[in-house]
């Protein structure tokens, strides 16, 4: 059985997609098989992994898999990523497209909340990890992910609004886990992204994090141009030839090792 993780925060731009994609790369480098599920209609994870939806040659995406409401149906939407070997041998993708927005209106349908879990059950057994990239909301699309996973990882920046949103995300999960038919679901790790140590305001926020999240703050990742370059070029960090890219790739490998340990895989 795959260990499923939702990567979320109720604030945009905190690095959810970056973490999903580069953590998948880090897990691959440790020989783990990863399925990335893009649950954001923006489809950023899909693009950054080298996938483009073509209206002229449509393939099933996560939107169709959820709509179908059938056990294991997500297997039909699994596709290879555009990255080179070895990544494409270890990482697969269930892509997204804007049509995923249309699943929100189905939220009130009886049993709708379990549709992603149902679609994935039996479809992701051959992977070690399933990483679900969430949109920056706590609405239906994120709730579908929360109902399907073993644990949540929250990304934040050392900025007031992002920290508040991380607290909101944690409290929402604590309060709604049972309602989402996933009692016991918790945020197992907080990834602090885009840290600028030269900024006093960041230092101030970083100091307060242990009080809020204890030893679940897994890592501080620096703000680095290489991260943006990798995202724009739709490649793993290891493809960017700079010292800072190498350092950041190493940080994601460490993060992957931490996840493997926490998940007991
Ligand atoms: N450590 C970093 N250093 C520099 N740029 C970064 C870093 N992390 C993320 N970025 C950039 O910041 C932007 C937002 O990151 P990302 O898309 O991962 O956030 P997100 O939480 O998925 O956003 P959304 O809420 O829109 O889905 C992207 O352009 C990304 O390349
Ligand atoms: Mg994103």
From TrEMBL:
CDD domains registered for this protein in UniProt: ParAB_family (cd02042)
Coiled-coil portions: none
Stored PANTHER family: P-LOOP CONTAINING NUCLEOSIDE TRIPHOSPHATE HYDROLASE, PARA FAMILY PROTEIN CT_582
Domain AAA: 5-174
Name of this chain's protein: ParA family protein
Source superkingdom: Bacteria
Organism taxonomic ancestry: Bacteria, Bacillati, Actinomycetota, Actinomycetes, Pseudonocardiales
InterPro entries recorded: AAA_dom, DNA_Partitioning_ATPase, P-loop_NTPase
Protein's organism: Prauserella salsuginis
